Structures are given as structure tokens and as C-alpha cells.
From TrEMBL, chain A:
Database matches in Pfam families: DUF742 (PF05331)
UniProt organism field: Nocardioides luteus
Protein name according to UniProt: DUF742 domain-containing protein
From TrEMBL, chain B:
Protein name from the UniProt record: ATP/GTP-binding protein
InterPro entries registered for this protein in UniProt: Gliding_Motility_GTPase (IPR052705), Gpn (IPR004130), P-loop_NTPase (IPR027417)
TM spans (from-to): none
Entry keyword set: GTP-binding, Hydrolase, Nucleotide-binding
Taxonomic classification: Bacteria, Bacillati, Actinomycetota, Actinomycetes, Propionibacteriales
Organism: Nocardioides luteus
């Protein structure tokens, strides 16, 4: 799938509803480094997402909300940015949301909040 | 817990988990999310307006005026490498198709109920009983600090399985919310195999 940076996202997503990664609303996205030259060539929407990721690892939902781009379009654009190595999509340290090691860590963290 | 560092993905060792807060209109979902979130509740109106288009075009202006914040989410940094996200599900029926998307990959769910309008949370209970693999608990939001109906009555009215935990919560209180989330995840642990 080629990502033409000049195509409007709504056109871009026309035939694409499926993404390759498991992009949950809480999947984290991050950037290794910021390439200003590459950023200048992106569509305005992709550029907003790319700029925002500089702040640190963020979820797909946060990126969508903060950049004012619908969730579906955000997913497709993030996939494209990941396939061109602009961004990394976290694979997650655990295979399942029910992995007991993950659950235990979250429970321990929440217990300390109280 | 230490994560093995990977040479080809050096920047990314942070993990995220998600808990869904469901329930009827005005039961306190946003309040509960806000009580523990470190970021202000995110106003997702623009996002929802677009996301909902394919489901139910918002050409109907009367529907639109009732949409304030259709859904919200919060974030809690539990450790430098561990983020917890809380997602409130939109209560309005026209946004129900979004529930699948929100619940996918969740570690647990809390169905919040208000005993003054129990029936508004029936769809959420139905959803988690029948249409989702995400283990859930039910929490009665104690709006005025005391329980107006016994938990047994609430359990009967909701036709809840004996194994589904039923607790009370003060959704405004960080501690109470955190405790409820712990109950939800402990329930997930009990309901899933060790090597899930
Ligand atoms: N006194 C009291 N008020 C509460 C409590 N929880 C929520 N409220 C109030 O009840 C109202 C509804 O709470 P929300 O958190 O907005 O409920 P919600 O489930 O997000 O509502 P919708 O998103 O509209 O479905 C708000 O005015 C809250 O301030 C509580 O524990 N005690
Ligand atoms: Mg709300």
C-alpha cells in the first residue's frame, strides 16, 4: 500500500477500512526521532499527528482527539506513517490484555494510587 | 518488571492497558474517569461527530444538540513504562456500534449503575454478558453517600450471575475508583486462565 502524502485522508481511506496492525484505541504510538524535512512533505493531517507524537508515546485515541481527526482516518494515517518509518506502533509487551503479569502490574499500580 | 531491550525498537518499551467504564446516561462514567485521570477528560465531540457518520449521519440537528461529550477517556501513568487508559462508553443508543471498538483489547470493564434509574444500565449489562469477551463487574454509584437499595435487590433486578462481582463506589473519589478498578482486574484474573 503506497502512501501518497498529497491525497486527502478521506480519499486515502476510501477503499481501506482494515489496518495491518492491531490498532486499538489505547495502542501507543511513538517516534524515534523527528525529521523536519520529512514532516514538511506530509499532508496537513499526517503532519499534525507526526508533530503531536513528538510529545511522547500516546494512544491512538489521544492523537485522534488532540488532532481533531476522526478515529478511522487517524488509524489509516498512523499506519502509513509507521510503514514509512516515521512512527512506531507499540506491539505491546504482552500478547493478551488478560496476561496475568500485566494484570498484576496494573493492580499493583492502582493500589498505590489510593 | 524489566523488559528485554530490543535493538530494533529502542524507543518503545512503554505498555498500555485499558479498562472500559460503561453504563447508562448520567450514571457517573465521566466523573469516575476524571477522578483518577491525570489528563483532563478529553472532549471528543469532533471525533465522535465524524466517527459516528457511517453509523448514523448527524444530519438530524435535534440529535446533535443532545450530543455534548459522547465519550471520554482518561490516562493514568502507573509506572514509567506502564500507562492505563480508561474509556467511558457512549450511553446513547446511536453510538452503541462503537462499543466493540472501544472494548476490543480491554483488560476489564466496570458497568456503573444508578439505583434511581437502574434500567438505563441494562443495555451495558446485556452487552458484556452476551456480546463481549471482556470480563466485567457492576458498581453502584453512591450518589448521596448511602445505598438506597440493598445490593441483593440490585443483583436480582439486574439478573446478575452470582459470579459477577457487585460493589459500591463513590465515582468522585479517586481512592474509591481505584479500588473498583482493582476489583475489576482481580475478577479478570479469576475468570481467565493464568496463561491467557
Ligand atoms: N452527588 C454526586 N453527584 C455525582 C456523582 N457522580 C456523578 N455525579 C454527578 O452526576 C452528573 C452525571 O455524571 P457524569 O459523570 O457526567 O455521568 P456520565 O455517565 O458520564 O453521563 P453521560 O456521559 O451523559 O451518559 C454530573 O452532574 C455529576 O457531577 C456522585 O457520586 N455523587
Ligand atoms: Mg459522560
Amino acid at each position: 500500500m503506497t502512501a501518497n502524502p498529497w491525497v486527502r485522508p478521506y480519499v486515502l481511506t476510501g477503499g481501506r477500512t482494515q489496518t495491518n496492525h492491531q490498532l486499538y484505541v489505547h495502542t501507543l504510538v511513538s517516534a524515534k526521532h523527528f525529521d523536519a524535512r520529512a514532516a514538511a512533505k506530509l499532508s496537513p493531517e499526517s503532519r499534525r499527528l507526526y508533530d503531536r507524537v513528538r510529545l511522547g508515546p500516546q494512544s491512538v485515541a489521544e492523537l485522534s482527539a488532540h488532532c481533531g481527526i476522526s478515529l478511522g482516518v487517524t488509524r489509516v494515517l498512523l499506519e502509513d506513517l509507521a510503514s514509512t518509518e516515521h512512527l512506531q506502533i507499540a506491539e505491546g509487551a504482552y500478547d493478551s490484555p488478560f496476561d496475568h503479569r500485566l494484570l498484576k502490574r496494573v493492580i499493583d499500580g492502582l493500589s498505590e494510587l489510593g | 518488571m524489566a523488559f528485554p531491550s530490543s535493538a530494533d525498537r529502542p524507543a518503545l518499551t512503554v505498555t498500555s492497558a485499558k479498562i472500559v467504564i460503561a453504563g447508562g446516561f448520567g450514571v457517573g462514567k465521566s466523573t469516575m474517569v476524571a477522578s483518577v485521570s491525570e489528563i483532563p477528560p478529553v472532549n471528543t465531540e469532533a471525533w465522535m461527530t465524524q466517527a459516528g457518520e457511517s453509523v448514523d449521519p448527524l444530519s438530524d440537528s435535534s440529535a446533535k444538540t443532545t450530543t455534548t461529550v459522547a465519550m471520554d477517556f482518561g490516562r493514568v501513568t502507573l509506572a514509567p513504562d506502564l500507562l492505563l487508559y480508561l474509556f467511558g462508553t457512549p450511553g446513547q443508543p446511536r453510538f452503541w456500534p462503537m462499543w466493540d471498538d472501544l472494548c476490543r483489547g480491554a483488560s476489564g470493564a466496570v458497568v456503573l449503575v444508578d439505583t434511581r434509574q437502574l434500567e438505563s444500565s441494562f443495555p451495558a449489562v446485556n452487552y458484556f454478558e452476551n456480546d463481549s469477551d471482556v470480563p466485567f463487574i457492576v458498581a453502584v454509584n453512591l450518589f448521596d453517600g448511602k445505598l438506597t437499595h440493598s445490593l441483593e435487590k440490585v443483583r436480582d433486578a439486574l439478573c446478575l450471575d452470582e459470579r459477577t462481582p457487585l460493589v459500591t463506589v463513590d465515582a468522585r473519589d479517586r481512592r474509591s475508583t481505584a479500588k473498583t478498578l482493582v476489583t475489576a482486574l482481580s475478577h479478570t484474573m479469576k475468570s481467565t486462565p493464568t496463561r491467557a
